[in-house]
Design a protein that fits this description.
Layout (H helix, E strand, L loop, with lengths): L1 H8 L6 H9 L4 H12 L8 H11 L5 E2 L8 E2 L3 E2 H8 L6 H14 L3 E3 L3 E4 L5 H9 L4 H16 L5 E3 L15 E4 L9 H13 E2 L2 E2 L6 E6 L1 H22 L1 H4 L3 H23 L2 E10 L2 E8 L10 H11 L11 H7 L11 E3 H10 L9 H14 L3 E3 L4 H9 L10 E2 L15 E3 L16 E5 L27 E5 L2 H18 L5 E2 L9 H14 L9
Parallel strand pairs: 6-7, 7-10
Antiparallel strand pairs: 1-2, 3-5, 4-5, 8-9, 10-11, 11-12, 13-16, 14-15, 14-16, 17-18, 17-19
Helix pairs in contact: 3-4, 4-5, 4-6, 7-10, 8-10, 10-12
């Protein structure tokens, strides 16, 4: 082709480098473009669009006048404008859109193709692309990786739960009650499927040399293999452009070349932005299948998302695209259901709020929650609607007794239910959630607790229990016997001692019948040491049994 061409137009020697480096050489830019297009689009394999368009430009690159001071006085070719060029090359086998895309690639990759904003022309002097190629050689791979990492870090700054390029499982926090998304480094994409799965399992199950507890609160953002090299290439040339600009004077760049450099910089930044936007398209989540840990892969492909940021797009994918994998709200009944409150042969009447948090973030299969604030809101709603009560951690002994003793009712003064609580008032560390049916009701005028019967004046028939409501009467109508039936907690016994002492002081003595039950039975040694002996030392006449 070259021999036939120069037989017609001459100037073989001046254009020898042009033909060798851009058209026909082993690494010719035009040839590489056509080879790539043929791989990606088999229908273009016999069309050679890059060669067709470049040859047309070359044909318009001769016959210009000599102009002193411009490129050393060489012939200044008139070149060809884009509309005229497209009219010459577009045909049934090459549409205008493809031709424009190929023309853009030629402008960015050919070493001797010049563009002044209107005309395309091949010259014997290298364009700014050659200068860039010379400088790109000096951009080190580690410099490229550091620049990409810094760009990602800037974009993820302030995004809670984003972990960038962890080098080990220990760099991903554990026991943080929020959803964490770890962005894996670029080299991850270059590994095989087996190696990726092995490393993913390690990240999901380990935190350094210890087992990971909050595995249900972790996801992995996996880089796309197809975007890694375009991303690195674009950053390489962005860095090379910076070097060229710094050396403008020493490289003797013309105004036209600086304009080309500016256009090339915009093109490379656009390519970088596109590759970065498409770099993280997939999130891996741990799931349990038949008792074994597996990976659930969720991809962005073909999903119409509204968010633009790197983190925002992936979070939208998990929270908005059905089936949802990450939740920003929770109904109180879900807590009751998953924590088995009031269920089973031995129903659990209460559970610690801390245990609820740990279960949601550690048990695979529980809903993944964006943060512990979701639990706080759900608990506050459950309290307000009466689905369960809220007990402060200071009442741990009472909650323990509630769990141990069947039929035991919690002092209603210790539980908050049917009231409004703010999220800040919910203590997820030490508080408890209790079912409403195990919270006692408070009778009028009497405390609620373990039952204690106190008939007074032995031998005298006592009237029916009055529930503690004693109405003042005239002296002739005053009752001669008092019978109280009470259910009291430990604290209430202490608080009621003075009242019973007042009654004993008035009557002389009181007769108390105390009944207490424990499903698994009382330890005899404990009963003797903790109850009977202290009463004996107080000189109390105690009779066991009926």
């Amino acid at each position: 082709m070259a021999q036939a061409f120069f037989t017609e137009v001459g100037q073989r020697e001046p254009f020898k480098a042009v033909i060798q480096r851009d058209f026909t050489g082993p690494n010719a830019r035009i040839k590489r473009i056509d080879e790539r297009l043929a791989r990606e689009h088999p229908n273009l394999s016999g069309v050679h669009p890059a060669a067709r368009i470049a040859t047309a430009i070359l044909a318009y690159s001769f016959g210009g006048l000599l102009r002193a001071g411009e490129d050393g006085g060489e012939p200044l070719a008139t070149g060809v404008a884009e509309p005229e060029l497209l009219a010459a090359v577009v045909g049934p086998d090459l549409d205008s859109i493809t031709a424009q895309a190929v023309l853009k690639e030629l402008r960015e990759q050919c070493l001797f193709l010049h563009y002044d904003g209107v005309h395309y022309v091949f010259k014997t002097t290298a364009n700014v692309t050659q200068v860039l190629e010379d400088q790109a050689v000096y951009v080190k791979p580690e410099e490229i990786e550091a620049a990409i990492e810094q760009e990602l870090r800037t974009r993820l700054s302030g995004r809670g739960g984003a972990i960038l390029w962890p080098k080990s499982s220990e760099q991903i926090p554990d026991r943080e009650p929020r959803f964490l998304l770890a962005y894996l480094p670029l080299d991850w994409a270059m590994q095989g499927d087996a190696a990726q799965r092995h490393q993913a399992r390690t990240l999901f199950t380990q935190h350094g040399d210890r087992p990971r507890l909050y595995r249900n609160g972790l996801g992995l953002a996996v880089p796309e293999r197809s975007q890694v090299e375009p991303l690195r290439r674009a950053m390489r040339y962005v860095k090379a452009i910076e070097r060229v600009r710094e050396k403008r004077l020493s490289l003797n760049l013309t105004t036209a070349q600086m304009q080309q450099l500016k256009e090339r910089e915009q093109s490379e930044k656009t390519a970088f932005e596109s590759a970065l936007r498409n770099l993280y398209q997939c999130v891996w989540l741990p799931v349990a299948i038949t008792g074994e840990l597996s990976v659930d892969k969720i991809t962005l492909a073909g999903r119409p998302l509204q968010a633009q940021g790197v983190q925002e797009r992936l979070i939208e994918l998990l929270t908005q695209v059905p089936p949802h994998r990450l939740f920003t709200s929770l109904v109180p009944d879900k807590i009751i259901e998953l924590m088995h409150l009031g269920q089973g042969e031995k129903p659990t009447p209460a559970i610690g709020a801390g245990q609820v948090v740990e279960s949601f973030y550690s048990v695979l299969g529980f809903p993944r929650l964006e943060s512990e604030a979701v639990l706080r809101r759900a608990i506050a709603e459950g309290i307000r609607s009466g689905r369960f009560g809220y007990v402060a951690g200071s009442a741990q002994d009472e909650v323990s007794r509630l769990k141990e003793q069947s039929g035991y009712l919690l002092n209603p003064g210790l539980a908050r239910i049917g009231v409004e609580l703010t999220e800040q008032e919910i203590d997820l560390g030490s508080a408890f959630l209790v079912l409403p049916q195990v919270i006692g009701t408070e009778p009028k005028g009497t405390p609620v607790g373990p039952e204690v019967s106190a008939p007074v004046t032995p031998g005298e028939t006592a009237p029916p229990a009055t529930g503690g409501d004693v109405t003042p009467r005239a002296p002739s109508e005053r009752q001669t016997a008092v019978r109280l039936s009470m259910r009291m907690t430990r604290q209430q016994i202490y608080a009621g001692t003075k009242a019973l002492a007042n009654l004993a002081d008035a009557a002389g003595t009181v007769h108390l019948t105390v009944e207490a039950q424990k499903m698994e039975g009382f330890d005899p040694t404990w009963l003797r040491n903790a109850v009977l002996e202290p009463l004996d030392e107080a000189d109390v006449d105690v009779k066991q049994g009926g």
